Queue: 2 jobs
Job 1
Amino acid sequence: MSLLLSVGLFISAFLATTWYIYQHYHRKHKNYPPGPIPWPFLGNVLQVDGKHIYISFMEWSKTYGKIMSVKLGFHRALVINDPKMSREMFGDLTFSGRPQAYFVTVLSGGCNGILVSEGNVWEAQRRFTLRHLRDFGFGKNIMQDLIMDNAQEVITWMRQEAGHPLPDLQRRLSLAVLNSLWTIISGQRYSQNDPHLKALLDSIQEGAIAITRHPFLIVAPWIRHILPTISGYTKFQKVVDKMIGFFRDTIEEHKQSMVDGEPRDFIDSYLKEMKRTRDRTSSFYKDAGEQNLRAVVGDLFQAGSETTAITLTWSILFLMTHQDAQRKLQKEIDHVIGQSRSPVLKDRLKMPYTEAVILEVSRMASVIPLGVFHSALVDTYFHDFYIPKGTWIWTNQYAIHMDPHVWGDPENFHPERFLSKDGKTVLRTHESWMPFSTGKRQCPGESLARDSLFLFITSIFQKFTAVPEPNSPIPDILDSDDAFFRGPKPFSVIMKERVILSSPIIITVGE
Ligand code: HEM
């Protein structure tokens, strides 16, 4: 028996190695992009910096070039380190797929929704969502009011805590951003202290942490069947089930209370579309429609809330550690908005320095350092390189944002780099600025995110000055704590309320 087992194991190992070598040379022959030599079965997993994988890729690109290959377990992946190539590739539908792997599609229940779907489902769901979100606020005054309501709640909280280090700043900002999104999608308005809202945020964050702490679920998802607890599967699946349950209950409530012909919010509009869909192959038809609706709602939360909130947290850290930039920002706020009214989006046109701060924060933060991976939909060639169908593709946004050949001093926080020489005009398009990615799948929430950043930052710094807590260390702003997204290291900030003596003279209490 044991002899039989040994022979079996030997033959399997022999076949796997032969297949591996064949694949390796076959690709090399066809001019597959170069990269570090992968280990059998594990690929390059043991060679990367587990905490900052994008930094390992950035280092390797110095040897392997603008387009390089890596292997994660059995998965082939390419890393693009050049903005021109990324724009060219992601502008081509051939590269608009998403890896259909377990950890990617688990929340969506398969190839559903926008974020992880591809082909016809992706096109139809993305188009519908963008059109109908516009009806309920995207790009309209109603959205501005919603964001401002939540910014005001943050300001009230900061006022209560004024003079003391802010407890758990990022969480409060996440609740504020999530709340605006939730209102557009579901019509429900919560307070930022509401237990429902907090529970939803906890699930989103726990899911992100579970997947980052257990990378084997990414590179070797089959492990969940053998070691469900150690691999992190049991915990991850529990969080996923909780989130799906939350979305299912909300959709169910909408079905019960919806009045025909009068959609109150995005979910009602979607249910209406499902009702009128007769085509059985449509992704809006009956069960498929319901699964897609759950997936879209999940996508908007996953993609929209933490990204914006973490960028806001970075903004406070950068401005706290760069008092000169903070003073210039406040000067512009005082000049254009003053102290007696709230900011509105129209102010942006007259506030180039504030815009430059947002561009610079987004560059240095690179909250999604490798973007969201795409995949090749067919076997193809790109710049003479052979790219097999199903290859995962990342753009190393972090490497592009930190390229010294482009930025000169990328490690310095310097908003002026986005301004004309006289400081009056903001240089809006920079080829190497791509926190929202580019091409066919470019982030559809970019304008909402940028509106939110503008309104939150101007509202907060109109009223407060951010200073470090004297007894706490200031973190290295080039380092980060990564849990799926690239976030700042913990820091302690005190928001000092600004006091207005008479019109142009403003001082900060305690200065
Ligand atoms: C600072 C905030 C944000 C950043 C940095 C960001 C960045 C990104 C990036 C890099 C992608 C991947 C694009 C690609 O696959 O090439 C993406 C996709 C996406 N984002 Fe955002 N995003 C932000 C905010 C938002 C918001 C507020 C929403 C909506 C409420 C949103 C919704 C989406 C969706 C639905 C996708 C998937 C698009 C697709 O697959 O076609 N994002 N985002």
Job 2
Amino acid sequence: MIDVVVIGGGPAGMSTALVVGRGKKNVVLIDENKPRNAVTKESHAFLTRDNIEPAVFKEKGRRDLLRYPTISIKDGRVLTIEKNEQELFELTTENREVFQAKNVVITTGLKETLPAVSGIENYYGTSLFSCPFCDGWEMKDKPLILIAESAQALHVTKLLKNWTDDLIVTTNGNSVFDANQKKALELNHIRLIEEEITELKGNNGELQSVTFKSGEEVERSGGFCTTTLDNKLPFIEQLGIEVNEAGYIIADMMGHTNIKGIYAAGEITGPSQLIVSASQGHMTGIGIIADSCEEAFQNT
Ligand SMILES: Cc1cc2nc3c(=O)[nH]c(=O)nc-3n(C[C@H](O)[C@H](O)[C@H](O)COP(=O)(O)OP(=O)(O)OC[C@H]3O[C@@H](n4cnc5c(N)ncnc54)[C@H](O)[C@@H]3O)c2cc1C
């Protein structure tokens, strides 16, 4: 019997596995290895790991884990989780491997949907990004575009103004800003283009210009876009795990969900950054060990 199965091997999952394995519990980490930051060349703002390639970050993390005989890593995707007669969680992967565990940690991250612009995936992660705290410094003081199709538009606009004074905002043909918000953009010298984008031009992932339906082409060196983030995993609903209105799992600081033995950490509990996910994973590891010690201790 396995003490803990961790589903997902990003910073959240690897941190949980490290703490649990160091707590002398057997832990199996199952990872399909498709993190959403795989499109980018460098990750930023993780202290001691600034500018690291995502694949190198993962490789270093896995190396840390494999120093411990209590931790093993399996490649694969978990498809189902069911509770069996022994009150253990039974997990099945798409390769039909079955694991029985006392506790399960969900650290599966999120998947993102980019704005509906033809060819946008050629630039996303190289010169078009979604998080200014991750990539704002690299894009600072450049002529930038914000492709904002959602209600986050004004918030992201305000943030981006911190990194550049040369910002054009486009809604790609959608109606996103109300009259007051448009006035605020004008006051802040930010041009708004509400037309549909017809073409993104550039080289090797480096954006050079954006063309609109009217035929107007604006030169831009890169930019940001709003994205939709979710990860609809059938077992979340099947197990009755509580999610918030955005669809993210509700977990406390120690990773507890509403289901005993099921923990969650990292972006599946809400969008964040590498260091935040790692720290949530660490706290969840502490939570699991503390719960297990509490259960094992003979109280009078
Ligand atoms: C373009 C881009 C640039 C970014 N740049 C930065 C940056 O510079 N700095 C920063 O701090 N953050 C950055 N981020 C955000 C960062 O990638 C995330 O915050 C972080 O990866 C979240 O960690 P996580 O462990 O929660 O999830 P992830 O890292 O996404 O890991 C989840 C893992 O679980 C696996 N998985 C999912 N479902 C299953 C399943 N059913 N079975 C098994 N495995 C499964 C996935 O394949 C994946 O390997 C960036 C994101 C993007 C998109």
